[in-house]
Amino acid sequence: MEHSTMELKDISAVMMQMFKGTEATIAKSFGGKADYSDPTFKMMVMSGADAPLRAAVLSSCGMFPANLAEGMLALANGHPLQGIKKMVKK
User: Rounded to two decimals, what is the model's pTM?
Assistant: First the structure.
């Protein structure tokens, strides 16, 4: 849970999707378009995607549960069955 989405997005399709989701969510505040020339947008994306998954769980107020983060991390590390088990477990 110490790895960030930014670190894992190049090696895992799951983490790439999570990065794109983070980027799209932040882009909604900026008119719906990802604009990396805007320093505020870039800072928000980097702070959201470069934080460890543990920080995302803690700052989400229950919207991103720990079991989902652990499952996504297992999927990113090439353990699909273990990842699905963790995501389904409450």
Answer: 0.78
